[in-house]
Write a structure and sequence with these properties.
27% strand; 10 strands; 3-stranded antiparallel β-sheet; rod-shaped; 7-stranded antiparallel β-sheet
């Protein structure tokens, strides 16, 4: 009668199958452990190890873990940035000339030392205009000399009524009164000097000076004084300094003028004015 007893020639067959499976599992576990150790030590060694010439990986090098994707071999794609104008192709340098170095991509073109204004920093409506200039400083202006004679004239003019006719005698000697202010510009507290000259424009007669009067008008108030002239005679075609009037410029001065009246012994009167405007 047949039985289920295994044949006597293969008593250890089941044990060999179990032992081979256990050995395969042990080998896989060792490989996994080795891969984990190499992966953890890789970043630390990359930080401490100096950069060397890359060596082709050997056949036994383990592949990186699946968590890190393999590096792409495609060329890197540049991130979109502000457009850079294309530079014109430089012509080949002539003989004896040094070629200019090529500009690096993305660098700004040279402006030759001149800084270009940023269009975004300008105010709306164009660049700001310079502030208007201030008012011009005030100055001293000399008037025109007036001359008259104090000698009496004949009142009986034929064909005219004497009461309605103004008759003046012409001066015997023509002359000019000139005034010069020093300094030319004024500020409060400054000492000033007005030089008074008398010029003889006649070519044949002298001007014998008899009297000189000075009237100063400041803010509508008049102050007069009689001065002694330095020279008593002005010869023909000469210009003589008669006097120097000194003073201190006041802070309250808003209007200012000086009148000079020179009288000769020939009874000719010469007048002129220096006005601050």
């Amino acid at each position: 009668m047949p039985t289920s007893t295994p044949p006597p020639g293969r008593p250890g067959a089941p044990r060999r199958g179990i032992g081979g499976l256990l050995g395969l599992l042990a080998a896989l576990a060792f490989l996994v452990l080795a891969a984990v150790i190499v992966t953890r030590r890789g970043p630390e060694e990359a930080q401490t190890t100096p950069s060397t010439t890359p060596v082709a990986p050997s056949a036994t090098t383990l592949a990186p873990p699946p968590s890190e994707p393999p590096p792409s071999t495609a060329p890197p794609i540049e991130t979109a940035a502000s457009p850079v104008p294309e530079e014109p192709v430089a012509a080949s340098p002539r003989a004896g000339q040094t070629p200019r170095p090529a500009r690096r991509p993305g660098s700004k073109p040279s402006t030759g030392g001149t800084r270009m204004a940023d269009s975004g920093s300008l105010p709306r409506g164009g660049p700001a205009l310079p502030p208007p200039s201030g008012t011009a400083p005030r100055r001293f202006v000399l008037g025109t000399t007036s001359i008259e004679s104090l000698k009496p004239v004949q009142r009986d003019v034929k064909g005219f009524e004497a009461d309605h006719v103004g008759v003046k005698r012409a001066p015997e000697v023509n002359g000019r009164v000139e005034l010069e202010m020093d300094p030319a510009t004024m500020r409060p507290g400054v000492d000033y000097t007005v030089k008074v000259y008398l010029a003889n424009d006649d070519g044949g007669k002298d001007i014998p000076v008899q009297e000189m009067k000075v009237l100063t008008v400041e803010n509508g108030k008049t102050a007069s004084r009689v001065l002694t002239p330095r020279a008593r005679t002005v010869k023909p075609k000469q210009r003589v300094l008669l006097s120097e009037v000194e003073g201190v410029w006041r802070e309250s001065a808003r209007t200012w003028a000086m009148d000079v009246v020179v009288t000769s012994t020939r009874q000719d009167v010469y007048r002129n004015r220096l006005h601050w405007e």
